[in-house]
Write a structure and sequence with these properties.
Elements (H helix, E strand, L loop, with lengths): L2 H19 L2 H6 L11 E2 L1 H7 L5 H9 L5 E4 L6 E5 H11 L1
Antiparallel strand pairs: 1-3, 2-3
Helix pairs in contact: 3-4
């Protein structure tokens, strides 16, 4: 899966969430809403490359233990695990 495909999936999820969460009152009160920035999602390999000294195995363990939130794209063994970069960095910053 390419980065472009990942960003497309994330953008679609964000659009869907915006449509579901916006109420009529919120849209009437806001004059110039700023569009939210989509979160930067990384594969396990990209997480290991982004943080020096972190291995793919460690990131996988953090995900399995529920310490770092993730989403899975695809199904079965061919699916990719995507981790929010900000959440990973926040966890590692708090764990140190």
């Amino acid at each position: 899966m390419t980065r472009r495909e990942k960003n497309t999936i994330i953008a679609r999820l964000n659009d869907w969430l915006e449509r579901e969460l916006v109420t009529e009152d919120d849209s009437a009160e806001q004059t110039a809403p700023t569009p939210p920035q989509p979160p930067e999602m990384l594969t396990l390999k990209e997480c290991a490359e982004a943080v020096k000294g972190l291995s793919e195995h460690t990131v996988r363990q953090l995900v399995q233990q529920g310490k770092v939130p993730c989403i899975r794209t695809g199904a079965g063994k061919n699916g990719k695990i995507l981790v929010n970069k900000a959440a990973l960095l926040a966890y590692l910053g708090g764990a140190a």
